[in-house]
Recover the amino acids of this structure.
């Protein structure tokens, strides 16, 4: 995940923190309250949302702390167990972490006309809400991958790796599920959804695929041509780079496309829960969703994929999308036996050759 | 008039409403209990299903017990998505294998290998329902009973129980309203005969005392009968009152006509000796009229008191003494001795003292005016079961053939005389009103006896 692109932020104070990087946003008018957000999301995606929110709540100053999902999870677990106040709003791309925390009573419920807008899969117990719609995509380097090679499904990926093994050896990249929360989450649901996934992992192993911690680093290496194709990248970040002119192509797999909804809740122990709820309402509001579709995540629930993305017909998309539902099923994702088993299988696939 | 009591309609409606309310309360309680059990039953099955799904994945790999928690186990519980779910797998040695390490297992379950169990508990501050099943692991590395616990918050159960209860209550409410409307209509229908009676009485001519002719249900037939009986009595009384007034008018008119004639004669008579004679006649007539009027009033009073005065214990001896005192002036005029033969101790009977005194006085006066030559005796005999008042005189008495008639009003034993024909009628009426008998007898020593036989006053000893 790329962090610390500070130059473009005018009113930004970077405070090195133990857990993550902190960003300050001063209130637009006389400050009358403070909102502290702990999350895992690139500042480029989150900043437009915070600034737009401050247009509505001019007297709120905002602190946003960006952390890695696993760090955030560990910190929240400890804080919740001790009843400590950490933030007024917490969000993470690791929806399983958020649901587990809420299941353990670390979140407080919030119901409003805005939260009612959230689709069923993005609302758990009126506590955890999914506010983004981010498909897991295949990204390739437009300059270096011939159009005929571009894989549009997992089967095509398997075929490509078998047929052109030499050309793509060491030139494939994906998440290291041991290090990345999102990678593990996507891996878990891929394993549930498809038998092709196992064969693909073996293919990745044979091709000596590179394993990455974060979408940002994957994108950077694809842009630079160090690798040619990346699997299971967050569509939002990839499209951000695409829009910025990076020579990459984005494919929504046509067999099925996993969709992550970044999950947020107001912690049970919040210093200013009202501010947290206001921001949550904003994220789920029409205005917040439009801002997110324009500037932050580019994909949105109920909308066609944005311009330039290689996707199935808009009418078919909804059937192909597999949103990861916020609910107790995600508890199985955090189960320790389950995780050990998946990691073992993953390692076996990669070491099979 | 006594204070108003609540209307029958409201009494019935209130009583039945309270009954319905109580019934609805009991039904609500029963419905809640039933709904609670039904909801628990339904959701417990899901919980146990999830637990056995997890149990089926238990196996031994690399010398250690491991599980492969199926997502479907939690998806089963996600039928109601709004639940918190907790789980834990405990190995045969009691060590936590996976899940929530602080989810408690009851001691007796840990080793027993008993069947599935479900119970209520609190976890992380939430009321939860926990299901536990045991799963036997047989492997050289680990042998024994593993326990799988799955817990779920109660929100969905409570919501289901609440909804079932509310639906049942809605039905009970509708039934209650129907019942209440039925009661209101039924009450109005049932009270209609009363309204008919009310209308029949209200629209009646005041002089119409004929029985009501109304079809009435068994329950209020008694009421119509009472009304009819009352009207019958009223009618009888009106009749007797009218005949008495007619009699009185007739009885008074005759002596007054005679008196007028006497006075006319007196006016024209110039001979002093004859004038004196006429004057004596006028005085006698006037006295006769006075007595007649007095007795008419006395009779009216006795009749009235019989209807309106309730009996009280009275001392017959004392009463007889007073009656004798009343009669003495008349007796003295004719030089008759009046003798009282009664002990000093009082003799009690139940009755109206005023009427009785009037009756005794009339019997004595009757004896004074018609019979007694020299003496009148009055005796009171207290017997075991009754009390006898005897008034005797030494006169000619009444011939036995006339005994049944002398107690009739305006019956005169002899054509001439000063009697009004009311004295013995009054005595007979009073006797009748007191449940006593009036008898005549010819006693030894040539005494003529009038007896009044009273039944003993109950509960009053003499």
């Amino acid at each position: 995940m790329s962090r610390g692109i500070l130059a473009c932020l005018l009113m930004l104070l970077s405070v090195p923190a133990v857990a993550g990087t902190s960003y300050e946003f001063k209130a637009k008018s006389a400050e009358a309250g403070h909102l502290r957000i702990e999350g895992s999301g690139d500042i480029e995606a989150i900043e437009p949302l915070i600034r737009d929110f401050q247009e509505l709540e001019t007297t709120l100053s905002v602190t946003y702390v960006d952390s890695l999902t696993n760090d955030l999870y560990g910190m929240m677990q400890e804080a919740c167990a001790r009843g400590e106040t950490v933030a007024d709003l917490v969000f993470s791309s690791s929806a399983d972490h958020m649901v587990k925390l809420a299941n353990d009573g670390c979140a407080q419920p919030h119901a409003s006309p805005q939260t009612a807008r959230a689709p069923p899969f993005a609302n758990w117990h009126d506590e955890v809400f999914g506010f983004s719609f981010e498909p897991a995509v295949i990204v390739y380097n437009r300059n270096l991958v011939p159009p005929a090679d571009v894989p549009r499904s997992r089967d095509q990926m398997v075929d490509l790796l078998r047929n052109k093994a030499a050309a793509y050896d060491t030139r494939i990249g994906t998440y290291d599920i041991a290090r990345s929360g999102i990678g593990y989450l996507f891996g878990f649901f891929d394993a549930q959804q498809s038998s092709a996934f196992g064969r693909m992992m073996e293919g990745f192993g044979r091709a000596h695929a590179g394993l990455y911690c974060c979408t940002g680093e994957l994108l950077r290496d694809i842009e630079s041509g160090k690798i040619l194709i990346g699997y299971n990248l967050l569509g939002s970040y990839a499209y951000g780079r695409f829009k910025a002119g990076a020579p990459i192509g984005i494919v929504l797999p046509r067999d099925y496309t996993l969709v992550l909804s970044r999950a947020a809740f107001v912690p049970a122990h919040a210093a200013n829960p009202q501010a947290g709820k206001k921001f949550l309402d904003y994220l789920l509001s029409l205005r917040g969703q439009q801002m997110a579709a324009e500037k932050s995540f580019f994909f949105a629930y109920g909308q066609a994929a944005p311009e330039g993305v290689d996707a199935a017909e808009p009418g078919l998309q909804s059937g192909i999308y597999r949103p990861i539902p916020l609910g107790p099923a995600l508890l199985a994702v955090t189960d320790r036996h389950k995780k050990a088993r998946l990691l073992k299988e993953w390692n076996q696939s990669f070491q099979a050759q | 008039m006594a204070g108003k009591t609540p209307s029958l309609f409201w009494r019935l409606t209130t009583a039945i409403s309270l009954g319905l309310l109580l019934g609805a309360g009991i039904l609500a309680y029963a419905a809640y209990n039933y709904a609670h059990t039904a909801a628990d039953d339904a959701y417990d099955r899901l919980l146990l299903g999830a637990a056995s799904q997890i149990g089926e994945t238990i196996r031994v790999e690399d010398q250690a017990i491991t599980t492969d928690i199926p997502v479907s186990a939690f998806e089963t519980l996600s039928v109601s998505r709004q639940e918190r779910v907790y789980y834990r797998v405990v190995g045969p040695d009691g060590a936590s294998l996976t899940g929530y390490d602080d989810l408690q297992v009851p001691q007796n379950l840990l080793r027993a290998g008993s069947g599935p169990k479900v119970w209520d508990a609190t976890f992380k501050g939430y009321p939860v329902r926990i299901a536990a099943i045991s799963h036997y692991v047989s492997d050289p590395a680990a042998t024994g009973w593993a326990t799988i616990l799955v817990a779920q918050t109660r929100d969905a159960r409570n919501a289901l129980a609440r909804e079932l209860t509310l639906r049942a209550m809605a039905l009970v409410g509708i039934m209650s309203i129907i019942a209440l409307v039925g009661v209101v209509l039924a009450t109005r229908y049932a009270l209609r005969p009363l309204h008919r009676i009310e209308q029949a009485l209200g629209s009646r001519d005041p002089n119409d005392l004929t029985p009501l002719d109304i079809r009435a249900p068994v329950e209020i037939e008694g009421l119509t009968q009472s009304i009819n009986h009352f009207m019958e009595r009223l009618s009888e009384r009106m009749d007797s009152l009218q005949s008495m007034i007619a009699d009185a008018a007739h009885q008074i008119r005759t002596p007054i006509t005679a008196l007028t004639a006497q006075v006319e004669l007196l006016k024209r008579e110039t001979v002093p000796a004859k004038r004196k004679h006429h004057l004596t006649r006028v005085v006698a007539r006037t006295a006769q009229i006075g007595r007649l009027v007095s007795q008419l009033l006395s009779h009216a009073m006795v009749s009235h008191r019989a209807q309106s005065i309730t009996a009280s214990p009275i001392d017959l001896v004392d009463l007889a003494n007073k009656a004798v005192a009343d009669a003495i002036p008349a007796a003295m005029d004719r030089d008759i001795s009046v003798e009282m033969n009664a002990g000093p101790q009082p003799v009690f009977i139940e009755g109206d003292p005023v009427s009785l005194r009037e009756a005794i006085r009339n019997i004595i006066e009757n004896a004074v005016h018609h019979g007694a030559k020299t003496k009148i005796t009055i005796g009171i005999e207290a017997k075991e079961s009754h009390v006898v008042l005897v008034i005797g005189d030494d006169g000619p008495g009444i011939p036995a053939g006339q005994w049944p008639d002398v107690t009739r009003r305006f019956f005169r034993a002899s054509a001439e005389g000063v009697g009004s024909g009311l004295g013995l009628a009054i005595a007979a009426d009073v006797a009748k009103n007191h449940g006593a008998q009036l008898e005549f007898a010819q006693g030894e020593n040539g005494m003529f006896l009038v007896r009044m036989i009273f039944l003993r006053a109950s509960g009053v000893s003499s």
